[in-house]
């Protein structure tokens, strides 16, 4: 197979792609890129999180690939698109992954206020979710103190995209840039995110905090 993912995950992603839920690059490259999230975290000293949210998982990336790297973790694939979530729920059931992978349909701005999820998750990963301020505001509320937000960055990504004072509003520490094949930033949740975040659906994008 070459890229180190199981036939199951490769098959699911191929279906996902056929439905138009994945970007245009080859599956192998997308799987490789998804594995980079785990490598970026490991580079920051986090090896086996117990709970992970894939923020805006879409067709299942990077969450499905990470579910293989972290088989003991509870992985939640979260997305606002009903169609994508229905697809993900079906394949997770079909391929017998439901013991540790689940799907949560809804907007992150709403789900971030759910009592059972708020301040409860070790790692939030995000690939192509939105601009830094939106990703940070939607991701931070889920994280436990000491948790980590890992976001893939464009190749020309620079640390200024994640200003320290801006992310501190959400209880996040400064962004560490990590290159593991691709570019990533890792931010630690230094203190729990203040209760007022995330703001109402659409507001993080309309009035970004930084
Ligand atoms: C560009 S896609 C990326 C999907 C996947 N992570 C990938 O890299 O292939 C962004 C996804 O985030 C979801 N999304 C965007 N904003 C969201 C929000 N506020 N709450 C929940 N899902 C959201 C969209 O429905 C979409 O599936």
TrEMBL record:
Gene3D superfamilies: Vaccinia Virus protein VP39. Pfam families: GidB. One of its GO terms (molecular function) is rRNA (guanine-N7-)-methyltransferase activity. GO terms for cellular component: cytosol. InterPro entries: rRNA_ssu_MeTfrase_G, SAM-dependent_MTases_sf. The keyword Cytoplasm applies. Keywords: Cytoplasm, rRNA processing, Transferase. This is Unannotated protein. The lineage of its organism: unclassified sequences, metagenomes, ecological metagenomes.
């Amino acid at each position: 197979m070459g890229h180190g993912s199981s036939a199951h995950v490769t098959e699911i992603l191929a279906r996902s792609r056929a439905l138009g839920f994945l970007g245009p690059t080859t599956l192998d490259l997308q799987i490789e890129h998804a594995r980079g999230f785990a490598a970026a975290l490991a580079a920051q000293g986090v090896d086996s999180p117990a709970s992970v949210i894939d923020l805006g998982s879409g067709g299942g990336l990077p969450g499905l690939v990470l579910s293989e790297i972290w088989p003991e973790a509870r992985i939640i694939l979260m997305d606002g698109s009903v169609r994508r979530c229905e697809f993900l729920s079906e394949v997770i059931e079909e391929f017998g992954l439901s013991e540790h992978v689940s799907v949560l349909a809804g907007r992150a701005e709403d789900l971030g206020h759910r009592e059972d999820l708020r301040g409860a998750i070790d790692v939030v990963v995000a690939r192509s979710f939105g601009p830094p301020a939106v990703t940070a505001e939607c991701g931070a509320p889920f994280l436990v103190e000491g948790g980590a937000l890992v976001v893939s960055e464009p190749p020309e990504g620079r640390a200024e995209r994640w200003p320290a004072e801006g992310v501190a509003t959400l209880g996040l520490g400064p962004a560490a840039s990590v290159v593991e094949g691709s570019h990533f930033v890792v931010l630690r949740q230094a203190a729990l995110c203040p209760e007022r975040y995330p703001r109402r659906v659409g507001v993080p994008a309309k009035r970004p905090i930084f």
